[in-house]
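Hi everyone, sorry if this is the wrong subforum. Our group has a chain we'd like a structural model of before ordering constructs, and none of us has done structure prediction before. Sequence below.
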Amino acid sequence: MINTQEIALPSSRNQIYEWALSAILIGFAPLLLHQQWITGPIVNALLVATTLRIGAKQALLLAIIPSAAALAAGTLPLVLAPTIPVIIVGNMLLISGVQIFKTNPILGILTGAIVKFIWLTIASQWILQFFLPEAVLGKVVTMLSWPQLATALIGGLFAIGVIHILKRKE
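Answer:
Right subforum, don't worry. Here is the predicted structure as tokens:
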């Protein structure tokens, strides 16, 4: 028999709606917006908001969508495909930090963003050198370093603001 608590899909009608909306927005943001400074905060905000409102398991499912959608649509060049698992792990680390400190979302976002930043910086410098051409490696290392910290913090703070507004209306 299947234990329904192990299934990561949302359970209530509102959770399903919020999760589906997050999945759609996370999937389309990289396709429509080709700017890291716009897409990054949007994706991170949706990951944080999903973690805080619905749960980490549901957010973890969403962590794979942005990079996969960008690759499928061609907005992420094929040469950068090796970055996808690295970025997915980074998103999962952000979600984990938020989940661990769920009772203090600011601390969770700060922790998750820093851990994501450290992972992406190390992975881009040490792991991706074996998979990416030298001509693009420098740009990828920059893209996956401090901008990731900034976009995670911006997105996380935005998510907290939106959640606060939603809670006041509920």
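For your construct planning: The domain at 13-169 is CATH 1.10.1760 (Arp2/3 complex 21 kDa subunit ARPC3). The longest helix spans residues 146-169.
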